[in-house]
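Quick illustration, no need to memorize.
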Amino acid sequence: MILLLLSQAGCANLLPRSKAVTESPWEEYEAAKASYDSITIGKTTVEDLQKIGFDIKSSPNIKILNYLDIAAMLQGMPSKDLDPGLQACLKARSDCRAYVFEPKRSYSKRVGNFWLDIFNFKRRTHETGWRFKALVVFVNHHVAYKLSSGEPKIDQMTDQVNPLGPFQAPADIFTKALF
C-alpha cells in the first residue's frame, strides 16, 4: 500500500505543509498598507476605520490598549519629544484608546529529501508570505496618531539537522535531564 502511494504521488508531495492566515480583507501586504495610508490624523473615526478594513469589533487578534499601556510603551522618552498625538493621548487619559492590528498571511512548506525528512535526519522548511502591523491611537473619536511596520515579503528557509535522526528526541530528553 505504501509503495503504491509513493508511486502515485511524488515523495515531496507527502511532506507536511501549513498555512497561517489572520483573517483580514487583504490578500497582499500592499493592500493592507494602502488601507493604512488612507487613515487621516484628526479626521478618521472608528466607523471610517471599519470601512477600510480595520474593524475594532470583528478583526481577529486585535490588541486594545489604554493610555497606561501607551505610557508604558513610551517610558523613557521625554514628553517634549513625543508626537503631538501621543501627548494628547496621555493628557486625555480615559478618552484615549489604541488598537494594534496584525494581519498576516504565511505559508510553510517542507522541502528537500523525503527520506531524510521522514526519518528526522534533515528537515528544510520554506516559509513565504507577509505580515503587517498597525498602531492606531484615538483621542475621543478621531485618530490622533498612527504607526505601521511589517514584513512585505517573507521568504525564509529553515534547516533543522538531527544527526541521530529518529533517536534525536530521546537523546535530547536525556541531555536535558543531565543538565
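DSSP finds seven helices and six strands in the chain.
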